User: Fold this.
Amino acid sequence: TRRRFRRVMLEHFSPRTFLGADMTLPTAYQPFDLYYYSETVPWYQGGRRRKDWATEDGQKRGADAAVSCHMDTQWLDAGWFDVGFPDGVGNYSFAKGFPNGLRPVSDYARSKGLRFMLWFEPERVHKDTEVFREHRDMLLSKPGSDDYLFNLADERALSWLTDKLIAFIRDNGIDIYRQDFNFEPLPYWLAADEEGRRGVTEMKYVAGHYALWDALLAAFPALLIDNCASGGR
Assistant:
């Protein structure tokens, strides 16, 4: 039944072209639980992180598995960056398992006929990560939280993030950009509002968010943007 439903969605409801490019929606599997899973204790019971998942060789094996499952996309979720998920959100340097960056993984995926999708969470920045240390003035804060909000309402911050993501997508061969968001932004927006101007930070932030996506599509017309929020929240 699931296969028949997926076939109907792909053949009759999914977009086929966008801006003149083949934009068929991806079929992919993402075993992110392997990032936390140990053979004896699953992640939701505090299992140890599986060392071979967030590695170049592990992801190449994942691409082989995707092909064997008749998928058309290799999907690497959180965990590719230094420190790992969730405390490493705000780092753009790679985890030790990717000494050559992600280009070898994306090139391998395409050699197998797959597209390469990568997970990002650029709006949330954890304390003591690279973005926190180097661009603290671009972040909004909330009392009592170690998570900071990258301020897309600020034009200088928006320009920096746009350039950062364009270079990262280009250098690592990303075909599908997946943007996640795992915390509540409203308290950060309200804390940044000036007196008598409630909602202005949120308004500018949302406009900046769309400007970011417009810039990514201008740089990469064939890019697919996939968005989620804490699993659909």
Q: What stands out?
A: The beta strands are 17-18, 21-22, 28-29, 73-76, 115-120, 124-126, 139-140, 147-150, 176-179, 224-227.
